[in-house]
Design goal:
The complex is a heterotrimer of chains A (637), B (257) and C (232). Chain B is an alpha+beta fold and 257 residues long. Chain B contains eight helices and seven strands. Classes of the chains: A alpha/beta (637), B alpha+beta (257), C mainly alpha (232). The complex binds flavin-adenine dinucleotide, protoporphyrin IX containing FE, iron/sulfur cluster and FE2/S2 (inorganic) cluster.
């Protein structure tokens, strides 16, 4: 497989301008003749579909929820970064670029990241104009907060509901296009396969989740913006429906999957409380601005937190990383929490938790100020745990949160299948081995509003695309495969439920491919997953039929894909003999337990090619070049 | 604790439905309501019965997917809480719970507790947006928004589109939902240009969708998991009446859009 | 159903087809009727000042037919519009929820607010009776064209007539206790400080007006209002 990243040459500051100038344009009168499929209605898909519809393309947009507004982006709490430097604290596009490359532990493409930082500025403007009610100062200007991994205040927010408000902005723009007739929205419709004709992506096969109907949709280009795959771990902060089906099936049709093992663990989530637990809830990272993280100095200290005097507490982040303190990047904070819990100093019933304490801030700023900032988060914590964080410290523990890996795309966001573009969390592009807080929203919107409208046009204008409709034999063939898989799943009627398999897979992944990984565990995990997958196809019980709304069937398809992706993640983690960002190989650490990168051998993006059923995947490498930010050991001390 | 559930079961939109009785055994206090249903469903599957269909996604009270009636109250007894965030510690051992789907002509039942809320999307499509071409916006700080206005706007914008207001309203009106969007955009300077058109078209869409008419009784506000106040309905009424008055003769004088 | 791909809804017809405009008409007519009720109550309370006072008042009202008939026509129109919108909204609302809940709890609404569509029509029926009883007189066995005082006193001495009036007035006042606050909301006024006050005021209106209206039949029944000459 040839990986042509199409990175522009020339100075990075002008690269995107130049690239845009070099791109071919589609004549305005012709846009209407092009059919474009957008799968996903989150920040990436929603903004793309709205912008493309506005440009005049004939867009079909798909989501599996009952409304595009419910895409998982809605759940993002903390904020969105932009290099506006409104605070006059020394921020700039270059600094955001620098921070993101460094935060990603030098495993992202510089040119992509620079473009992202440039677009960040326009995103805020666009969203403000749409009516996103960002927080304001009394003077009427936009307010900012700071976020993990940065020393400037560049995060824009709308209370604790930033993702919701940004998504509503994109959703509203999308609905305006639906009203105008340029976008047709297909809700409760799940993409189950990609149709390739003459080597190009020309359509998708979907299932109507209400009627069970399998349908074909033809197009000139297909855009996937289907979000992340963190649910491979079963328990994660992702919505229950988040899945890898669209990207995984596209992978099996030829799209390379890049850096699958790069997953982000978020340090501040509510700890697990029982086996029935169905998901983990994130407490926004912004809490680390005012909360102090600690555990008892001595292991096994079972006193209630208020009874532990100051000198018997260990504020371990402040101690180990004096200059960033509680605001170290997520991977660092997460590993540090795991380390203290492994030492037996964890708190709460399970011992898997650390305190996040607001007592000092409440004393300093008053309860009102804290309530103003985090009221809804405190309420949420109280609802879930029954405890009051105003009077007793929160208990938090790391949880799977985000996947930096995803389908490989070039600078123009096109995958290795011509005509198939991938946006948002579903691609691998901008965050390297670790994503900084408040940067995913930025990336999704940058891809959707400000990149794809150009690069899609370029593709359409520079390729001669023959007319294709759903009567092409490729549609029938792919439909048959989809139908066969569904029929097979429904016919097993075995003994175990779908979610029992999902849970088991999640445990294997968390234990072996989670916060700490090692060759032995990964090798074992690969075998366990293979065995589990085999059992799944013999013993899973999917009740009901395929001809109506069947949530078990929907889930069964997703879990089947996770069972394959999980193995690839372990293989990727095993192949990467270094520690970087969210990927921590226990064999490769410094004496103080910090990650040890190996730039000589692993300064590349791993792009995995599907090898076929039961065949090993093939590793392709895209070497990474750092001309502007020179790789150095990250240090947050 | 052990509970008795009476759940509305309906195979599809065309089929008749009925209430059926189920036992939920060994429910833990720390479970969320939906986790309790997950456990009931696993049991049903083990007994080769159809699991109960209910909608959910984020389970964090933000996506607006979940929602059904628990003992006649939308999203159940805890105020300001979606049913996915409702925890079982609010129930007593031995309680009987009635679970029913949202009921409204505009929300046809698709299966069990799942309804079609597409009407809410169409209300937004009718005018719940600010038209701004991608890339054409002025600098974010060029539009100054007083903090008070931003705060009211945000209060309204917090709506998650769950439909509980419709479900709780004796008239199945979607006034709170629509009022929230009209207020969100109408209180911001960016939303002024289309304020009239928005208030006219969104309200017209309400009727086209067969929602009922508001009688100002406040059940919606009590049921709303985001505690959107009915003040937002008054704002909608204000905007709509003003717009209706201003455009009253528009067609006669040949004025279109 | 697709969104209204119609022309902008601004023709005169669609102006009145809007549920919010209908509700505003209801509020405006309700407010006017509420003013009438206030004046009517104050006028009627003159019965306690003795026959002279109220009979003169009544005679004065009747002496200028233009005003009297103007007011009557105006009131009829108001009631007519109020009822018309009631019927229209009732039709819309009865279509909006085809299947009732097996269990439904009320969390915020008051009995008064939930029964507007019962109290209203009952008041309408009462108005018809009331006109036949004390205006036209055909439902009053001892009706006099000029002696309003006696019409009231003798009319109310029949216990079931008083009972009917009391029930109707109770309903009118519950109607007002919701209506007076509701009309502000319908006309687009809601204020975090003033609205709670308006609510209190509306409840007070309900109670005070009921006390005022109920005092007359009760006084007549208990003999507190003396007949000033026996026509029998
Ligand atoms: C709890 C939480 C908090 C977060 N907070 C922040 C934050 O503060 N700042 C920040 O920058 N980032 C945050 N993130 C990360 C960020 O929210 C996501 O990375 C981002 O929103 C992803 O957007 P997306 O458009 O790529 O995908 P999504 O929003 O996940 O959208 C995926 C879309 O694809 C559709 N879809 C998926 N599969 C299919 C299929 N097979 N067929 C049809 N449709 C399909 C879905 O219906 C959906 O519409 C947070 C994430 C979580 C989980
Ligand atoms: C003296 C007589 C009456 C007075 C003073 C009166 C007053 C009012 C007022 C002030 C309102 C509030 C308007 C609003 O909600 O915006 C109202 C509402 C209403 N009235 Fe009347 N009304 C009277 C008679 C009637 C009659 C005769 C009917 C019915 C046939 C009626 C039916 C209603 C209804 C259905 C409402 C709407 C309630 C709601 O939507 O909550 N009313 N009335
Ligand atoms: S107004 Fe409240 S109840 Fe209604 S849809 Fe919005 S969040 Fe749900
Ligand atoms: S599942 Fe998202 S709000 Fe309840």
């Amino acid at each position: 497989m040839k990986l042509d990243s199409r990175i522009p040459s020339g100075p990075i500051e002008q690269a995107w301008d130049q690239a845009r100038f070099d791109m071919k344009l589609v004549n305005p009168a012709n846009k209407r003749k092009f059919n474009v499929i957008v799968v996903g209605s989150g920040l990436a898909g929603g903004s793309a579909a709205a912008s493309l519809g506005e440009l005049g393309y004939n867009v079909k947009c798909f989501c599996f929820q009952d409304s595009p507004r419910r895409a998982h982006s809605i759940a993002a709490q903390g904020g969105i970064n932009a290099a506006k430097n409104y605070q006059n604290d020394g921020d700039s596009i270059y600094r955001l670029f620098y921070d993101t490359v460094k935060g990603g532990d030098f495993r992202a493409r510089e040119y992509n990241v620079y473009r992202l930082a440039q677009n960040s500025v326009n995103i805020i403007d666009q969203c403000v104009a749409q009516g996103v009610p960002f927080a304001r100062e009394y003077g009427g200007a936009l307010a900012n907060r700071s976020f993990g991994g940065a020393q400037v205040s560049r995060t824009f927010y709308a209370r604790g509901q930033t993702g919701q408000q940004l998504l509503l902005g994109a959703y509203q723009a999308l609905e305006a296009q639906v009203d105008a007739g340029s976008v047709k929205m297909y809700t409760r419709t799940e993409m189950l396969d990609l149709v390739i004709i003459n080597g190009k992506a020309r359509g998708i096969i979907t299932r109507n989740l209400v009627t069970g109907q399998i349908e074909s949709h033809a197009a000139d280009a297909v855009i996937l913006a289907t979000g992340g795959y963190g649910n491979v771990f079963y328990l994660s902060t992702n919505a229950k429906g988040s899945n890898c089906t669209a990207i995984w099936r596209a992978h099996k049709r030829g799209a390379a999957f890049a850096n699958p093992c790069f997953t982000q663990i978020h340090p501040t989530c509510i700890p697990v409380s029982g086996d029935y637990q169905s998901k983990l809830t994130l407490m926004s990272e912004s809490l680390r601005n005012d909360g102090r993280i600690w555990v008892p100095l001595k292991g096994g200290d079972k006193r209630s937190p208020s009874q532990i005097p100051e000198n018997e507490r260990d504020y371990y982040l402040e101690r180990r990383y004096p200059s960033f303190g509680n605001l170290v990047p997520r991977d660092v904070a997460s590993r540090a929490a795991k380390a203290v819990c492994d030492e037996g100093r964890g708190v709460g019933e399970t011992g898997l938790g650390v305190y996040l304490d607001f007592a000092d801030s409440i004393k300093r700023l008053g309860k009102n100020a804290i309530e103003e900032r985090y009221g809804n988060l405190f309420e949420m914590y109280n609802r879930i745990t029954g405890e009051d964080p105003y009077t007793q410290p929160m208990r938090i523990y790391p949880a799977i949160h985000y996947t930096m890996g995803g389908l490989w795309v070039d600078y123009q966001l096109m995958s290795t299948i011509p005509g198939m573009f991938v946006l948002g969390e579903a691609n691998f592009s901008d965050h390297g081995a670790n994503r900084l807080g408040a940067s995913a929203l930025m990336q999704g919107l940058s891809d959707g509003y400000f990149v794809i409208p150009y690069t899609l046009g370029n593709y359409l204008a520079s390729n001669k695309l023959e007319k294709v409709d759903t009567s092409a034999p490729e549609f029938a063939a792919t439909t048959k495969e989809v139908n066969d898989t569904i029929a097979r799943m429904l016919s097993i009627k075995g003994k175990r439920t779908v979610s029992s398999y999902h849970r088991e897979l999640g445990k294997i992944m968390w234990d072996n491919c989670g916060m700490g990984r090692n060759a032995e565990g990964l090798t074992k995990a690969i075998q366990q997953i293979q065995a589990l997958r085999q059992e799944y196809w013999q013993n899973v019980n999917v009740p009901g039929s395929g001809a109506d709304l069947n949530q078990q069937l929907e889930n069964a398809g997703r879990v089947a894909d996770f069972l394959e992706l999980g193995e690839l993640m372990c293989r990727d983690a095993l192949a990467r003999n270094e520690s970087c960002g969210g990927h921590f190989r226990e064999e490769y650490q410094t004496e103080e337990g910090e990650a040890m990168r190996d730039d000589e051998n692993f300064q590349y993006a791993a792009a995995w090619e599907y090898g076929g059923e039961n065949a090993e995947p093939i590793l392709n490498k895209e070497p990474l070049e750092f001309k502007y930010v020179h790789p150095a050991q990250r240090s947050y001390k | 604790m052990n509970l008795t559930l009476h759940v509305w079961r309906q195979a599809n939109a065309a089929a008749p439905g009925r209430m059926e009785r189920y036992d939920a055994r060994n429910v833990s206090e720390d479970m969320s309501f939906l986790e309790m249903l997950d456990v009931v469903n696993e049991q049903l599957i083990a007994e080769s019965k159809e699991p109960i269909a209910f909608e959910h996604d984020c389970r964090e009270g933000i996506c607006g997917s979940c929602g059904f009636m628990v003992n006649g109250v939308a999203h159940g007894p805890q105020r300001g809480t979606t049913v996915c965030q409702l925890h079982m510690r609010h129930f007593k051992d031995g309680e009987e719970l009635y679970l029913e789907p949202w009921r409204a002509t505009a929300f046809p039942v698709l299966k069990d507790l799942v309804v079609d809320r597409g009407a809410l999307d169409r209300i937004i499509a009718a005018g719940g947006y600010v038209s701004v071409r991608t890339g054409s916006a002025p600098d974010g700080n060029a539009i100054s928004v007083p903090k008070e206005a931003a705060d009211i706007s945000m209060d309204a914008a917090a709506c998650i589109g769950c439909g509980a207001c419709v479900a709780a309203c004796p008239n199945a009106a979607a006034a709170l939902f629509t009022g929230a969007k009209i207020s969100h955009l109408g209180t911001l300077p960016q939303g002024q240009a289309e304020r009239s058109r928005r208030a006219l078209r969104m309200v017209e869409q309400l009727s086209l969708e067969d929602f009922g008419a508001c009688t100002n009784i406040g059940e919606c506000e009590a049921a709303c998991p985001k505690q959107i106040p009915i003040e937002m309905i008054a704002r909608m009424n204000h905007d709509h009446l003003k717009a209706a008055w201003q455009t009253r003769g528009a067609r006669k004088s040949g004025g279109g859009e | 159903m697709s969104t209204a791909a119609l022309a902008p809804p601004n023709s005169a017809r669609s102006l009145f087809s809007s549920v919010i405009v209908k509700k505003a008409i209801m509020a405006a007519t309700g407010a006017a009727l509420y003013l009438f009720v206030t004046v009517h109550l104050l006028g009627n309370l003159q019965v306690f000042l003795g026959p002279e006072a109220i009979n003169t008042y009544a005679a004065k009202l009747k002496s200028i037919p233009e005003i009297l008939w103007g007011a009557r026509l105006g009131l009829l129109t108001l009631v007519g519009l109020h009822i018309l919108t009631t019927i229209q909204l009732m039709k819309i609302n009865s279509k909006a929820r085809p299947v009732a809940y097996a269990k439904k709890a009320n969390s915020a609404s008051t009995a008064a607010s939930r029964t507007m569509y019962l109290s209203g029509p009952t008041i309408a029926a009462f108005i018809v009776y009331h006109l036949l009883h004390l205006t036209v007189g055909s439902a009053h066995p001892q009706f006099s064209e000029t002696d309003v005082y006696s019409n009231i006193v003798f009319g109310f001495r029949v216990w079931w007539v008083s009972a009917a009036y009391l029930v109707a007035m109770a309903l009118l006042c519950t109607h007002l206790s919701h209506g007076v606050q509701s009309m502000f909301q319908s006309l687009g006024f809601n204020h975090p400080k003033h609205t709670p006050r308006i609510k209190k005021f509306a409840h007070a209106v309900g109670l005070i007006y009921f006390a005022g209206f109920a005092s007359m039949p009760l006084a007549a029944l208990s003999g507190f209002l003396p007949p000033f000459f026996e026509r029998l």
